[in-house]
């Protein structure tokens, strides 16, 4: 079985539990590899360059835009760029692993347009906007201003869930982990 060219795209409003679910999936011993995005935002908490993100200055990020180095990029929040580098896609593809993307909703749908049937899009849905806010506050990594920015964006993002191939509701975490695992195992087993 070769899984070269296979792509899993996870999108959700910030705070839905996307990172929690992806981290669980990456620990299952499946041939999955996380696509490390580039961002111009500052590292948060314990984040390390080259692990969660490639941290760039805004100037460095813009230079790579001019050089056409991105598969897709966006100013996800005002003043903060995020993007997927072609070099990252090639790196993972060359190892024969399934690429796992953690991108915002617009980015996820853009990647699907590029990779088409090679990609499965999965929307992680929070139980409500209020719960999303509670989770972001509970995570304790963002200022209230940043949290409100994320919550405001979430309402628009939730409307796009219907454009995704699969929806995993993250209310009860154990159930969401199990559902996500089922989706991923199903996807991998259908790959030629
Ligand atoms: P995202 O990557 O989508 O921004 P995270 O995975 O960082 O979200 O989750 C946001 C916060 O919510 C974290 O503190 C996480 O531990 C918590 N969390 C995740 N899933 C659940 C859940 N089902 N119930 C309660 N808290 C959750
Ligand atoms: P955070 O700042 O919480 O790490 O991420 C904020 C948002 O940016 C999340 O929704 C995350 O999925 C998204 N994101 C991370 N990397 C990329 C990327 O390469 N492209 C796009 N479009 N969004 C990204």
Structure at a glance:
The protein contains 7 helices and 9 strands, in the order βαβββαββαβαβααβα. With 192 residues, it is an alpha/beta fold.
Extract low-pLDDT stretches.
1-5
Provide the CATH superfamily.
P-loop containing nucleotide triphosphate hydrolases
Largest sheet: 5 strands, parallel
Helix and strand pattern: EHEEEHEEHEHEHHEH
Helix percentage: 40-55%
Could you tell me how far the N terminus lies from the C terminus, measured between alpha carbons in angstroms?
6 Å
Task: Tell me the β content.
Answer: 15-25%
**Nearest-angstrom radius of gyration?**
16 Å
Number of helices: 7
Q: What integer is the average pLDDT? A: 94
Q: How many structural domains in the coordinates?
A: 1
State the shape: globular
In order across it, which strands form the biggest sheet?
Answer: 2-7-1-8-9
Structure summary, number of beta strands? 9
Oligomer: single chain
Structural class of the secondary elements?
Answer: alpha/beta
Small molecules bound in the structure, each named once:
adenosine-5'-diphosphate, guanosine-5'-monophosphate
> Can you tell me the CATH topology?
Rossmann fold
Text of the CATH class = Alpha Beta
| CATH-scheme architecture | 3-Layer(aba) Sandwich
List the helices and strands and how they pair.
Blueprint: E1 7-11, H1 18-26, E2 32-34, E3 37-39, E4 53-55, H2 58-66, E5 70-77, E6 80-85, H3 86-94, E7 98-102, H4 105-115, E8 119-125, H5 129-139, H6 144-158, E9 166-169, H7 173-190
Parallel strand pairs: 1-7, 1-8, 2-7, 3-4, 8-9
Antiparallel strand pairs: 3-6, 5-6
The site of adenosine-5'-diphosphate has 14 residues, from α1, α5 and α7.
């Amino acid at each position: 079985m070769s899984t070269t060219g296979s792509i899993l795209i996870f999108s959700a409003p910030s705070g839905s539990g996307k990172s929690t679910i992806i981290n669980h999936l990456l620990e299952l011993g499946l041939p999955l590899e996380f696509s490390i995005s580039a961002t111009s935002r500052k590292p948060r908490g314990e984040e390390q360059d080259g692990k969660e993100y490639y941290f760039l200055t805004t100037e460095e990020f813009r230079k790579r835009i001019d050089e056409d180095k991105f598969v897709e990029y966006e100013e996800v929040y005002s003043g903060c760029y995020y993007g997927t580098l072609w070099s990252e896609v090639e790196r993972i593809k060359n190892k024969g692993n399934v690429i796992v993307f953690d991108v915002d909703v617009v980015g996820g749908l853009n990647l699907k347009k590029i990779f088409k049937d090679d990609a499965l899009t999965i929307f992680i849905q929070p139980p409500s906007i209020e719960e999303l806010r509670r989770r972001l506050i509970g995570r304790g990594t963002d200022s209230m201003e940043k949290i409100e920015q994320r919550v405001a964006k979430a309402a628009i993002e939730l409307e796009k869930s219907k454009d995704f191939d699969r929806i995993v509701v993250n209310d009860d975490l154990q159930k969401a982990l199990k559902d996500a695992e089922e989706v991923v195992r199903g996807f991998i087993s259908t790959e030629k």
